[in-house]
Amino acid sequence: MTFQKKLCLALEKHPTYPGVVKQFISGLESHIKDRNQFKNCLLPCTPVRAEGSRTLVHSYCESLIKLLLGIKVLQGLVKKLMEMVSVSPVPIQHDIITSLPEILEDSQQSEVARELSCLLKQGRRLTVPVLDALSRLDLDAELLAEVRQSAMTIVPSVKLEDLPVVVKFILNNVKAADAVEVISDLRKSLDLSSCVLPLQILGSQKKLKSQVQASSSMSQVTTSQNCVKLLFDVIKLAVRFQKDVSEAWIKAIENSTSVSDHKVLDLIVLLLIHSTNTKNRKQTEKVLKSKIRLGCMPEELMQNAFQNHSMVIKDFFPSILALAQTFLHSAHPAIVSFGSCMYKQAFAAFDSYCQQEVVTALVTHVCSGNETELDISLDVLTDLVMLHTSLLMRYATFVKTILDSTQKLNPCQIRKLFYILSTLAFSQRQEGSYIQDDMHMVIRKWLSSTVPNHKQMGIIGAVTMIGSVALKRNEGDGSSLERPELNSERDGQLSTLLDLVGFCCEQTPEVLALYYDELASLIEKQKGNLDLQLLDKFGKSLVEDFPCDFVVDLSPTVEGSFLFPVKSLYNLDEDESQGAIAINLLPLVSQSELGKVTDGVSNQSKRVVSPICLSPCFRLLRLYTGEQNSGSLEEIDALLGCPLYMTDLEVEGKLDSLSKQEREFLCSLLFYALNWFREVVNAFCQQQDAEMKGKVLTRLQNITELQTVLGKCLAATPGYVPPPATFDSEGLEAVPSINAVGPARKRNGKKKKADGSKASSADRSQADDSSEGNQPDTELSELEKTAAEREAGNPLVQLQSYRPYFRELDLEVFTVLHCGLLTKSVLDTEMHTEAREVVQLGPAELCFLLDDLCWKLEHVLTPGSTRRVPFPKERGYKDIGFSHLCQRSPKEVATCVVKLLKPLCNHMENMHNYFQAVGQNGGVEGDPGVNIQEHQMMSSCYQQLLLTFRSLFAWNGFSQHENTDLLRSALQVLAERLKPGETEFLLLEELISESFHYLLNFQHSVPSFHCAFILSQLLIAIAEKPMAGWKKEKMASLAKQFLCRSWVKPSGDQEKGSQFNSALRTLLCVYLEHTDNILKAIEEISSIGIPELINTAKDGCSSTYPTLSRQTFPVFFRVMMAQLESSVKSIPAGKPSDSSEVQLEKLLRWNIAVRNFHILVNLVKVFDSRPVLSICLKYGRLFVEAFLKLAMPLLDYSFKKHRDDVQSLLKTLQLSTRQLHHMCGHSKIRQDIGLTNHVPLLKKSLEQFVYRVKAMLAFNHCQEAFWVGILKNRDLQGEEILSQASEERGSEEEEEGEDSAESPAEVTKGETLT
């Protein structure tokens, strides 16, 4: 201080003052040009001590520059200092900037901070010293925000090693008020993909010979990973010690809506917060689940995180494990799948401790007994054993403990478990021997059990082991000396197992059939990988047994007495009289029925021959034969065309005269015949010979004919339980009892779930309807498939509940769809016969194949994120009828369907042309030449084709990067229809556009509302990859066109019913969600369509919107109220900073919204049904709450400038709130609990509204415009409600502008009628 005073006085008293100041500064500049001298000036000054002086140096001494800056007359020094920074070398710049906080006075800090902020934007080399200096300056809030924004702008371009410093500066200077906004900007700017680049460089340099290059690349990778680690350490510190940062980051992620906006960073930060902040765990978990459910956090994102940033997320392993365990308990498949993927990625990316924890957690899930957890955990273990066999072998002891909990596993799960254990046991001989012993012991125990389920599990386990033993081994598996011993040991194990299983199966047909099916599946799954020499012993006996048991020489008469006369049917080889054979079906069925009666007398030593084993045995025979003969089935091709011994099937009018035993016998005979034909089609569908193709198509025709007969027989045989066709279900006796409910309902008169057809598909549809009521976004599944078909009397629908009793069709069967389509409308009888010689499908066969394909795709291809259907309730039975399908991955199934897209497009274009021709002739009823039954069948085919396309393109697997090529192939097929030969080099977005336009062409030919609904869903599935503006416009236009079209059934009646309403609700949502002006769209329907409806007769409908009738009004009303409430939430809340134009625009939007709300609420006076009242009470409250939250702040700030507009808005809303108050009174006098439940919350909102308006007027100094009146309780029509409590009136408060006292607006408030 003494130095500063003396120097200041000297300068001021100098004769040349103020010129001497410039001389002093220029002299200082000359002095500090020397770097060493400049450095000394920046270092603390040390006072000179006289010899012997005891004066101590102060612990803190100022530098010369700092002392000079404290002198007011030298303030130009700061400017000169900053000028020096701009021209000095980088090291000197670094020194100056770092020293600035110590040099500057408080009054100078703001000016320098702005200059440093500019410097930050100019170059990247000074980032660290500039931010270090800025963080030590004391800045006001406005300047701090400005400086922070400068730092934010350099985040995308800053060097990787400087990034942690920049992020630390931003996070350390966040205030609670703007935390969400700052973090949102930081999220957008931070891109971890740039940090992964060195890893990719390393991958590309692996082949380089230069060790120097390789080591430098490795060093680069290490540096990159360390920088990312430092970045997340910075974020972790901020999250732990700054509550605002933690909550703001969660909020920022939550506010991000677009799928493309979400990054790997978001997932890692959520894991970090979950791991660091115990208070935010629930919230983090909730956000993560929500994002997964909406498809914003695809599994690809997580794989990226684990693969590229494993060093970072390894620290969060406890959280990863906890989240994965929680996710596996979820009811939502996407969340469950995400949890399972977390386990797999953690096992692959982390160390042995983490791997052991993962395996332990999975084993715990398996032993928990929860069906979903069991399946998913076993699937994860299966994937791990396939991808990381040697790694998982270390933890085999843990996996083996599952054998102690097998009583909780169903047969399908047993198969998975034994596959896992067998792979571990036989992949490495010595290490796996102890597992082999345990497995042998368990299997022997099960096979010797008398409990059917245990025997079933024993067979499945044994066959799975046989598969592992019989796998062809590479010669590298053991040394040449050890090989013979291993072979003999393996042969012994296989022989023992085969003998043991064979002995246990001989006397029980169902168990034997299961054995055949399991071996057949094994051969199919391990095609080409099994050492069939080991199975020769078994194979030879099979080739001998099948003809002996089931095939006889064809003869005109059959000896024996049976319930029905034997007749040879369905012979396709009638010209071959020599050596003809037949399937001995009816005699075997008779023997089987008699065998049930005389079971105790049967000879135990004789092998049982049952028709139950016919189809399984044939399946095994053809797969074994195909494997032995490189796919050729020439040895058994006689079975394709040979007839069956059945009886005359002309049952029309005869069924009533038959006894119950005879009707049930006939039904069983038909089931066996159908299953035989299904297996024959499975076997020969891929044969290339034209004659065999023709026979396969004929067999398909036989199936559709037999199904029609079976439908009639089942209708006349209530309570009938068919013979089993699938043998690996939960329990052999359990399936009939579950599925007999549908067929038995007609007998006992009970309506378990719904009235309607005999098939339990009606039950399923009704169940879907009830769930749809609460989930308007959920996709319709089976219900839209069966709606039109049930009315058409389609036999397929009647047989829906009997699916478990039919043999499963293989995916290969659908190659038959490559054949053309033949319709009776095109050809007369003579030509029709000729055309049959050409290989073509009929509508019935096409319908049969498409129905089965839809059923399969719905089961295996999980639909897209936003419309995912929860797991079925009956989890134990979900895979019945899908045993073969479940052995394929969803990607394999999707690939198979993509190969079928070309013929499927051909069929769909045929449908389009057919219905366009019908439409031009005035519709079905307008053209007597149209075959009504064929029209219904074609309509059903069209619907199933659209469902097939939708199932494929809505598959959530297409969101994964590895399936992009498959998606491209699929879109290419559709685009090729519009631009043949031009699609090979189109970008993905262009392919999507072309495919969208191709499918849009079908809009004019869809024959039913359900087809229209499915087409719109299909277009959305394609357009969402991604949804561009023009696609939204097209979707809105399409949905409106469907809503404005009259939908008439072939009978001439309007379409209606619960399924129609469900589809209508979704289609209306599509229209309102995709239209560019939702408020205008709602106003159009409510002010044009509904008045038209009010003026029509009872059964009439709106002329503009024919889908709007009195029956569908509640659907329209619910969707419009929900969408109105949702749309106003998108209007930003008012801010003080809003300009007058912005305020006016927001007021205008609110004006339209409130006007729409007023129209809708007043419709309750005309449509006063309970559902409408309930909807109005619920969404009325939500609308008022949204108004309070978003509109009232706007009115606060715009009242003075736009008083008339605000006043008008409030008056209109008051009319609506008055009507809501009347509805509350009506609900109470009706004493309807469902309605009165809404009343308290609504009353609360209405009262809050009163006080909020009062506060708004007080804020604008207009309290005199607010006064209190009396509000009477009235009913819907405005009539006063009188009761013993009528004196306890609610008070009414009204507000008006100072200029309009003559038209007050009412507001409910206070006590109401009790």
Describe this structure as you would to a colleague.
It is a single chain. The protein is an all-alpha fold. The chain is built from 56 helices and nine strands. A three-stranded antiparallel sheet has the order 7-8-9. Strands 1-3 form a two-stranded antiparallel ribbon. Strands 2-4 form a two-stranded antiparallel ribbon. Mean pLDDT is 75; it is low at 197-212, 475-485, 597-605, 731-793, 824-837, 865-877 and 1284-1314. GO terms for molecular function: DNA polymerase binding. Residues 1290-1301 have a biased composition (Acidic residues). This is Fanconi anemia group d2 protein. It comes from Limosa lapponica baueri.
Question: What is the secondary structure topology, with strand pairs?
Answer:
Layout: H1 2-13, H2 19-31, H3 35-42, H4 64-69, H5 76-87, H6 90-103, H7 109-122, H8 127-135, H9 141-154, H10 163-172, H11 179-189, H12 193-204, H13 211-241, H14 243-255, H15 264-276, H16 281-293, H17 299-308, H18 310-313, H19 317-327, H20 333-349, H21 352-366, H22 371-387, H23 389-393, H24 396-400, H25 411-427, H26 429-447, H27 452-469, H28 483-505, H29 509-525, H30 536-550, E1 551-553, E2 567-569, E3 581-583, H31 585-597, H32 614-628, H33 638-641, E4 644-646, H34 660-684, H35 690-715, H36 734-739, H37 741-748, H38 761-774, H39 782-792, H40 795-798, E5 820-821, H41 829-837, E6 840-841, H42 843-860, H43 890-920, H44 932-953, H45 964-978, H46 988-1000, H47 1009-1023, H48 1029-1043, H49 1058-1074, H50 1078-1094, H51 1113-1128, H52 1140-1162, H53 1170-1198, H54 1203-1230, H55 1233-1236, H56 1239-1259, E7 1266-1271, E8 1290-1295, E9 1305-1309
Parallel strand pairs: 5-6
Antiparallel strand pairs: 1-3, 2-4, 7-8, 8-9
Main location: nucleus
Biased composition (Acidic residues): 1290-1301
Region (Disordered): 738-782, 1281-1314
